[in-house]
Amino acid sequence: MQPLALFFLSEAPAVVYELPDFRCLSVKDIEGAWGRSMHKVYLRALRQRETMAELMMERGEVPSSDVPARSISDNPEVVGATVREAIGLTASDQSKWARNNTLPNDLVDSVEDLGVLVLRTSDVSLRTMRGFSLSDGEIPVVVVNALDSWKGQIFTLFHEFAHLMLREGGVCDLFGPDDRRSRRIERWCNKVAGAALMPRDSLLAAVDTYQAGEREWLKSELQDLSGSYGVSWEAMLIRLVDLGRASQEFCDVTRQEYVQWRLEQREQEKDLRSKDAGGPPWVTMTIRDQGRAYVREVLNAYHSGTITLWSLIETLGIKPKHLPKLEERALNL
Fold this sequence. Notes:
Layout: E1 22-23, H1 36-58, H2 76-87, H3 91-100, H4 105-112, E2 117-121, E3 131-134, E4 141-145, H5 150-166, H6 179-197, H7 200-207, H8 219-229, H9 233-242, H10 248-275, H11 282-290, H12 292-303, H13 309-316, H14 323-332
Parallel strand pairs: 2-4
Antiparallel strand pairs: 1-3, 3-4
Helix pairs in contact: 1-12, 2-6, 5-6, 8-9, 9-10, 11-12, 11-14, 12-13
């Protein structure tokens, strides 16, 4: 374990890091994706993970997680049910998600309660990365791209949780000879996420009210179905293929249309945000990006005398005047 002071440096030490597994919109977006912005987000995830572990040990707690361990040979349907149970997800929870139009705080809190550090970023293009995970340290980490739709962020969170269950160290050589295995892992994680968010029996009962058997689906029907589970209609369509309620050919064509539509929609939303002088409150963004569990740990370390006010300010990147509001939001919610 390296000294705590190391993690308050303005720059990371010269260490060679491995490429973490991360989700892209499509395979063609992977090549050349590892740029400066992606590297900075990766370094931030490493720093936060190590800082949090150090602070926990300073107060006598050994970092650990309750993420269940599973193998790629396990049935994704069964594993999906395990994920749902571990997180404590209910149909009632999912029906409420659409009202907020954002990645639910209670869902993130439930994942963090299992000892996972959940971070978000808006500094990397959605074409480059939707999310990645790190499971080779004392605290597992999931990073979600906040530029994605809230439904996309939910699916990414569950997808990366599946990666953590595999204990793969969060590293996947996307360009090496093991690429076939990497694709197999990605498919497995997608199936687990789909099974967790759209339970087989529940979904089949809902689907068969439209029409039993394989069929082509109207976008309006996919949107209605997906809204009930808090997922995108892209995720719903893939799940319907898995359950034999849509063809792969229909899925491939419709999915490409969806991806293009989402990219265009995100660009429009980006333009609207750039014209809006306001935007989300600063405190909200700090907690969102750095994770409520991490912010709480740093604040508790400050109040216990483990770190100084200056270290807190440097670690969280805040100004002293923002501290009261940050404490109110992070500690009381």
